[in-house]
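[Backbone geometry]
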Amino acid sequence: MLGGISVCLVDVSDEARRGRLTKRDSGRWDARAVDAFLGWAAWHRKHAEDPRSRPDVIIDDSWPSMAWRRWTG
């Protein structure tokens, strides 16, 4: 059994992340894809502060065999 879970969230500003993504893999990161990636980063920041915030982001349309009740129950 786990005695606890430790997490380290390495983060950069959205401005820095936007710059890195647009430089990487030219043509792959259009504005819509970058915005989606920044939204995902924002979710992680909020989730690190409050793990019960917006579970729908990963639960909705997820693999049916996932045991989300352990987290949401």
